[in-house]
Amino acid sequence: MYHFTAMFAGLASAVLVAATSLSPQAFAHDKNATYSAGEPGDPKKPSRVIHVTMLEGEGKMLFRPAKLVINRGEQIRFVVKNIGLLPHEFLLATTAENLQHAEEMKKYPDMEHDDPNGVRVEPGKTRELIWRFTKKGEFEYGCLIPGHREAGMTGYIIVK
To answer: Distance between alpha carbon 121 and the CA centroid of its chain, in Å?
Structure first.
């Protein structure tokens, strides 16, 4: 009897550990992280407003505009509106970082994000993101929901 009870307890522990490791919370991002494209903006400081629209149609998913030019040090208030029928994301990073994150999303498509450099926008909704571009370079905004990036849902930012 003892052997069965010990074996059952061990199996229950293994299942609990496995279930915990698969939960979206296991992928919580570091709140003290640094970001390649700059840093979270300050809502109390002035910013330029850029409207970005998300949509899908004719086998494509896209952002409008698909390319932006921003000056280093500029703070932007992105007003991101989803006029499509599916949820979409707007995540600022380098292309390499977004590609790596997109691979994680394929493994865990229900991953929840709580990052200052991105928002998830449900159909018909609008969300805002305030970002200060502190570094020169080329960055992107992408939707990392599996299949969306592959359907063309990326936009590019050049920071001068």
So the answer is: 10
Tens of each residue's pLDDT in the chain, 160 residues: 444 444 434 433 333 333 333 333 333 445 567 888 899 999 999 899 999 999 998 889 999 999 999 999 999 999 999 999 999 999 999 999 999 988 888 888 777 777 899 999 999 999 999 999 999 999 999 999 999 999 999 999 999 9
Q: CA 141, CA 154: separation in Å to the nearest integer?
A: 6
- How far is the C-alpha of 110 from the C-alpha of 159, rounded, in Å? 32
Query: pTM of the full predicted structure?
Result: 0.77
Provide the CB-side half-sphere exposure for 27 (13 A, CA). Answer: 17
- Gap between the Cα atoms of 56 and 81, Å rounded: 12
The secondary structure of residue 25, as a DSSP letter, is G
Q: How far apart are CA 62 and CA 60, in angstroms?
A: 6
Q: What is the dihedral of CA 10, 11, 14, 15, to 10 degrees?
A: -150
d(CA 13, CA 52): 47
Whether the CB-CB separation of 78 and 89 falls below 8 Å is answered with no
